[in-house]
Design brief:
- By secondary structure, this protein is mainly alpha-helical.
- It has one domain.
- Helix content is about 65%, strand content about 5%.
- The protein has six helices and four strands.
- The radius of gyration is 14 Å and the shape is globular.
- The relative contact order is 0.14.
- The model has no long low-confidence stretch (mean pLDDT about 95).
Amino acid sequence: MAAGSEQPSAVDGTLLIDWYKVADRALEYETFLQTYPTSNRAAAVKEAFGVAKKYVFYGSPNTPLFDNKTQMISEEAAIAYENTLSEAGPEQIEASPLLTQLNDFLVLLEKNGDKKTQAVRDYLKSLQVPGTP
């Protein structure tokens, strides 16, 4: 988790890290919270996890996950997320709520032509990611 403080994820609404690292950081926060739920750092990590999860599923204001005009998912993000899931494997996906949500998200996107349809919006809303509509 030290990498998060060495290189910020975003500045002025623009992601500074690639989509693979976006997912990786969120997973690091989730793992910390699962491993050390009573840590004195848990509250701060939980807050950071909320922000990281927002980046995973929405992007940032100046680096959105979906193109504002076409509503298509960023190709780079889709590839990074698919690689993240492939590297994790079924057991790790099952053990991680974040990876399970990401897997379900990509399956839904595939069914919807990689486009942010109403079904995709409804799924995102169901995740109840902090700081999102």
